[in-house]
Write a structure and sequence with these properties.
single chain; alpha+beta; two-stranded antiparallel ribbon
Amino acid sequence: MTEFAVDKTVVVRILDEEYPLAVNDDAPRLSKIADIVDTRMREIAGSSRSQARDKIAILTALSFASELLKKTDLYGKD
């Protein structure tokens, strides 16, 4: 089993819910990532018929995966 040294915990807020996350060294980066996820989830929640958090989270994950795949295809990497 892999073990990670945790320097501190950062609490991020996504869709008005707080999540304490362990972070090794780059808390500002983790906060920025959480802000990006929060923004995307709010966009999807605003345009979705469903307001269930789990469905919004899945749609958000699919959206990010689609963007990643497009960029991977664009640069020819697997």
